[in-house]
UniProtKB/TrEMBL annotation, chain A:
The keyword Zinc does not apply. This is Fatty acid desaturase. InterPro entries: FA_desaturase_dom (IPR005804), Fatty_acid_desaturase (IPR012171). The chain crosses the membrane at residues 51-73, 153-172, 214-235. Keywords: Membrane, Transmembrane, Transmembrane helix. It comes from the Bacteria. The keyword NADP does not apply. Pfam families: FA_desaturase. It comes from Thalassotalea eurytherma. Residues 63-333 form the Fatty acid desaturase domain.
UniProtKB/TrEMBL annotation, chain B:
Residues 39-143 form the FAD-binding FR-type domain. PROSITE patterns: FAD_FR (PS51384). SUPFAM superfamilies: 2Fe-2S ferredoxin-like, Ferredoxin reductase-like, C-terminal NADP-linked domain, Riboflavin synthase domain-like. Keywords: Ubiquinone. This is Oxidoreductase. It comes from the Bacteria. It comes from Thalassotalea eurytherma. It holds the Pfam family NAD_binding_1. The keyword Heme does not apply. Gene3D superfamilies: 3.10.20.30, Nucleotide-binding domain of ferredoxin-NADP reductase (FNR) module, Translation factors.
Length: 353, 351
């Protein structure tokens, strides 16, 4: 890898492996209780939200609380529960419901598809241009590794649109990569799933979500169809904006580095860790903030240890920071405002050649 | 009507809530009110724990009314939550169906395994603790016939016979004579008091206690029973002796044998691995995923280095080792990553 003073990769690998082993040895009842508690909170907010939306006719204020409650539930399901469970962070529990094979989240994207693109491609090939399609999602130009095109001029608007529709962007992600509907097939991509299966999964999961939020629950409300329809729409919108923002803060702040495929050939464990470290950035915040981000506020730790129960990132973070300091690796962290404005600057900056 | 509601709730939970059942979706919420409640399993509460011998524990469980009562000789899965992890093991019910019917109680008699795991947790259980059990399963049951029966038990393999014999107790006198040969280390025979009692209550039942050191292999005891029907429960080796006898003399034999296969780590060995029912033979020299792919099996994978969990599959039984950490798995059902798993015993896998 091209960096002036390279860290001692072997030592870095060893230190981080050891930190992982130490922490995983502590994982147990506390972690199981945490994820179950999150699920309980989700169920409570989801169902109170859905009921309150129908009671909007008594007082619109109830409707507003309903929207927020449902949005909160959807955020929890997406981030602290769905994202983390689907990463396999709780597979050790042997629980029939809470594991990466069984869990399916409440968004338009089929869990299996996300697992392939995100858990495999993104987490394995983080920020390797050409292999990690999460880098700019094939829509945004975020570094000079990509040639500038006219469409990049209005990529800020594209970004806003992507955020608004984020769940659909994620749902469509793998299909875009596989050129299921448009574009020339990319022969170097080896897929374990056929275009037909992809399409079927995309439509069936998407349709289920649409029917649920925009037909079934509104119909249940009878004359208040539109109230519920609008409430569900808003809740989905809030969740989309939130998750998109958090995820952009984790990977596309100004300092985040990119890598080329050649650089990463025959990578050692230490080098892999190093790439993960430079490909992510953290957000500072309190307890509630961390939970609402699904602990992606610890994006660095998440990328180093993707299948460690996420709440543990809090205790490993200071140790990771120490190790990084020892190897003079930049530990990219900052407040939400700082990181987010850095993201916006980056999107804006690369709009131009 | 009920089945219609069931179908509707199943459809709803699958399509709207993305869970197999409504119970699964609400499980952590239900657990707030009913500790240890789990969709698809039954709850049972520990009512008594006692040590029968050094290293052998008897546990009485109170089952709820919904539990489908076992047939004598059947077994159940017992699931405990140990440090957040659900661990499951199979045990024969060592009490009569009648006890379950009248007192809602079943008893398990368990030998504590030296290698740890679930059985170590059993003596620590106390009255009032909750555990999970499955519905009863198994074909090892006793059928009445004219022919005389020979029961062969070894070690904790006595448990199904206790259940069978005590279920006969309450019923009308049985036609056939039953003889039990029970092998164990000297002074290590379990539940001898109960066997004595049973032999008094059942006129046609007799038993002998034996041990290898004194009486030799079980095979040598069988020559008097050429016409009997054999029921065997014990370790694999014990069963093999009986099976050989049955083959030579053409006796009917039905058996329940537990083979705790030894773990092979140091030497290069091949193991029987069943993948979705298909039998393969795999080595312990490279990770399971590599070998399956070389054999042309269609298994999912991604990174091949243990990050992405794409190669996740369910290990129904057997032992594997995580090659990254060196950690040796449990014997019971759990999720494993094929790309970082080395096989240590025969395995049953499901993708
Ligand atoms: S293939 Fe990625 S974890 Fe096994």
């Amino acid at each position: 890898m091209s960096k002036v003073n390279q860290p001692n990769y072997a030592l870095l690998g060893e230190q981080l492996d050891q930190l992982k082993a130490e922490t995983m040895a502590k994982v147990g009842q506390e972690d199981a209780d945490h994820i179950r508690k999150m699920i309980v909170i989700h169920r409570v907010f989801e169902w109170s939200g859905r009921i309150l939306l129908m009671l909007g006719f008594i007082n619109p204020f109830l409707w507003l609380v309903g929207v927020l409650s449902l949005a909160l539930a959807k955020i929890l399901d997406n981030m602290e529960i769905g994202h983390n469970v689907m990463h396999g962070q709780y597979d050790w529990m042997n629980d029939k419901q809470i594991n990466s094979k069984a869990y399916e989240w409440d968004i338009a994207c089929d869990g299996g598809s996300w697992n392939r693109v995100h858990n495999y491609e993104h987490h394995t090939f983080t920020n390797i241009i050409g292999k990690d399609r999460d880098f700019g999602y094939g829509l945004l130009r975020l570094s000079n590794d990509f040639r500038w095109r006219i469409k990049n001029l209005w990529q800020f608007a594209t970004y806003i649109l992507l955020s608004v529709m984020f769940q659909w962007g994620i749902a469509y992600h793998e299909l875009a990569a596989e050129r299921v509907f448009f574009g020339k097939k990319n022969d170097t991509r080896k897929s374990q799933i056929s275009a037909k299966q992809l399409k079927r999964k995309f439509f069936s999961k998407g349709a289920k979500q649409l029917v649920k939020d925009y037909l079934l629950f509104p119909l249940l409300a009878g004359p208040f169809f539109l109230w519920v329809f609008a409430g569900n729409f808003l809740a989905n919108l809030i969740r989309n904006l939130w998750t998109s923002t958090i995820i952009f803060c984790g990977h596309f702040t100004g300092d985040v580095k990119t890598f080329s495929e050649q650089e990463c050939e025959n990578e050692t464990r230490g080098q892999w860790y190093y790439r993960q470290a430079l490909g992510s950035s953290n957000l500072k915040g309190g307890n509630l903030f961390h939970i609402l981000t699904g602990h992606l506020s610890f994006q660095i730790e998440h990328h180093l240890f993707p299948d460690m129960p996420a709440k543990r990132y809090r205790e490993v973070a200071p140790k990771v920071q120490l190790i990084f300091a020892q190897h003079s690796i930049h530990y990219n962290t900052g407040s939400f405002i700082r990181q987010y404005s850095s993201v916006l600057k980056r999107i804006f900056r690369y709009s131009f050649p | 009507m009920k089945s219609l509601i069931n179908r509707f709730s199943r459809w709803g939970s699958r399509n709207l809530l993305h869970h197999d059942s409504l119970g699964g979706y609400f499980e952590p919420v239900i657990q707030l009110f009913k500790p240890n409640w789990r969709a698809g399993l039954y709850r049972a509460q520990v009512s008594d724990v006692s040590l029968l011998l050094e290293g052998v524990v008897a546990i009485n469980l109170r089952v709820d009314d919904r539990w489908p009562i076992h047939q004598a000789g059947q077994h159940i899965d017992l699931t405990l939550e140990i440090a957040g992890k659900l661990v499951t093991r199979v045990f024969t019910v060592a009490s009569s169906p009648n006890l379950a019917k009248t007192k809602n109680t079943i008893r398990l008699v368990v030998k504590i395994q030296p290698e740890g795991g679930l059985t170590h947790q059993l003596p620590v259980l106390t009255r009032g603790d909750w555990v999970n059990i499955s519905a009863p399963r198994g074909e090892f049951v006793f059928e009445e016939s004219k022919q005389s029966s020979l029961f062969l038990a070894a070690g904790s393999g006595i448990t199904p016979f206790i259940a069978i014999l005590s279920s006969l107790q309450k019923e009308r006198a049985i036609a056939q004579p039953i003889h039990l040969i029970y092998y164990a280390k000297p002074e290590q025979h379990l539940l001898v008091d109960e066997l004595n009692e049973l032999s008094q209550q059942l006129p046609r039942f007799t038993f002998e206690l034996m041990s290898r050191a004194v009486h030799g292999d079980v095979y040598e005891q069988l020559s008097d029973y050429i016409n009997a029907k054999l029921l065997v429960c014990g370790p694999n080796k014990f069963y093999q002796s009986a099976k050989e006898f049955a083959k030579i003399y053409d006796c009917a034999i039905s058996a329940e044998h537990f083979s705790l296969m030894g773990i092979t780590e140091s030497t290069t060995s091949e193991f029987e691995v069943s993948l979705n029912g298909k039998q393969l033979s795999l080595k312990n020299t490279s990770p399971l995923l590599n070998q399956l792919l070389t054999l042309g099996e269609h298994v999912n994978y991604g990174c091949k280095i243990g990050i992405c969990h794409q190669c996740q599959c369910t290990k129904k039984s057997g032992v594997v080792k995580d090659i990254r950490t060196g950690q040796v798995s449990d014997r019971s059902e759990e999720l494993i990553q094929l790309c970082v798993s080395q096989v240590l015993t025969d395995l049953e896998l499901e993708t």
